[in-house]
UniProtKB/TrEMBL annotation:
Ranges of Pro residues composition bias in the record: 223-239
Record-stated family: Belongs to the CAP family.
A matching Pfam family: CAP_N-CM
Segments of this protein annotated with the region Disordered: 213-257, 278-313
One GO term (biological process): actin filament organization
Domain (C-CAP/cofactor C-like): residue spans on this chain: 312-448
Protein name: Adenylyl cyclase-associated protein
Molecular function in Gene Ontology: actin binding; adenylate cyclase binding
Biased amino acid composition, Basic and acidic residues: 278-289
InterPro entries assigned to the protein according to its UniProt record, in alphabetical order: Adenylate_cyclase-assoc_CAP, Adenylate_cyclase-assoc_CAP_C, Adenylate_cyclase-assoc_CAP_N, C-CAP_CF_C-like, CAP/MinC_C, CAP_C_sf, CAP_CS_N, CAP_N
Organism listed in the record: Hibiscus trionum (Flower of an hour)
Low complexity bias: start-end ranges: 213-222, 240-257
Gene3D superfamilies xrefs: 2.160.20.70, Adenylate cyclase-associated CAP, N-terminal domain
Amino acid sequence: MEAKLIERLEAAVARLETLSAGGISARGLPDSGVEVSSDPSVLAFEDLMADYGARVSAAAEKIGGQVLEVTKLVLEAFTVQKKLLIEIKQTQKPDMAGLVEFLKPLNEVILKVNAMTEGRRSDFFNHLKSAGGSLSALAWIAYTGKDCGMSMPIAHVEESWQMAEFYNNKVLVEYRNKDQNHVEWAKALKELYLPGLRDYVKSHYPLGPVWSASGKKASSAPPKAPPPGAPAPPPPPPASLFSSEPSQPSSSQPKQGMSAVFQEISGGNVSAGLKKVTADMKTKNRTDRTGVVGASEKETRSSSSSFSKAGPPKLELQMGRKWAVENQIGRKNLVIDDCDAKQSVYIYGCKDSVLQIQGKVNNITIDKCTKMGVVFKDVVAACEVVNCNGVEVQCQGSAPTISVDNTSGCQLYLSKDSLGASITTAKSSEINVLVPTGPDGDWGEHSLPQQYIHVFKDGQFETTPVSHSGA
């Protein structure tokens, strides 16, 4: 009796193995999301959301308002990514247009978050910008190979968080002595990506998502033809997170494929629309120009005075040695991603913008900028702040020298590797230096003196900073 039972069980197991090898489930149906959802990588993603996602959600519940709203959208984006990971296991690798259409649900959620940062500035602006900037890390799912122009998935997650961390640190500094709920939220948001998402990608998709070789084909939505007699369609909106149209990166070499897609994340090249000036276009070589300025030309110049005074915006590499970032206004996602230790960066006349320098450069100069944020990794010589007002500079690597001259309001964020930097100030006020104080990402703020007492003693002047004490 027992021998027959064992024989029947072995036959059943053999049949199930045969069905599974042929892509058929035990119910005689093709494999579906029910089986794929039990894949270890999918289960690990659920654990990621249940652990790190729950912490962010719990912290946001204590704050409420827009912080809770944007946190729900962040977690919604993670939920959409989980669904896409399940579909990838059942879908053949698409072309570029098909990939854009495939990732459209994720893009729609990201656009919702970005919309919250527009319009009137919110009291929780730094929270919203931190959450919105962090979502670009989810774009690792679009990595299709070394020739796609993107960083490897693990590196992409780490690099994407760096821009979000600029605003995340502002939340930590603003609320560290006011409301610990906001500090808890900022720390939990960072942990969701580092180490959360980074470690997940490292364990399951270090080389990018694995598409099915025999699954269904991803469909790309064909453009709809307008009905007869209908007016011409409006111009397309600005490119979103995922776009099949190439865009010019900030580096001197044009990028294609997914690198062009994600160049839009960092704001793209603002000088892409400027024409190259050839020799025959220069004023000194033109025969149709004289030294006499006509009345019509005067009127034209006066009507565009706002442009001529500030000059056109620039983000370009000049002569292969100097990055020029000039006259950028309201640009929060400026990125220099192709630089080396022999190049310098000169930032001039920028206002209400944020620049991220990804890589080691020789020297950084910030000149005549207002409400400008600069995040850089390593600098060989020095970082100089001159003639500025209300700027913030964050060093994520090392910097031997930092100088601040004729500047009113400057926040310096130093990393552990840059604590030994020599800081020189002259004719400046409201200079604060923030340094890491513990493993939890807390910051300690130190104000540099701007008033001194000079006493003539023993044949020479002795200078000491003024110390203020409250009653």
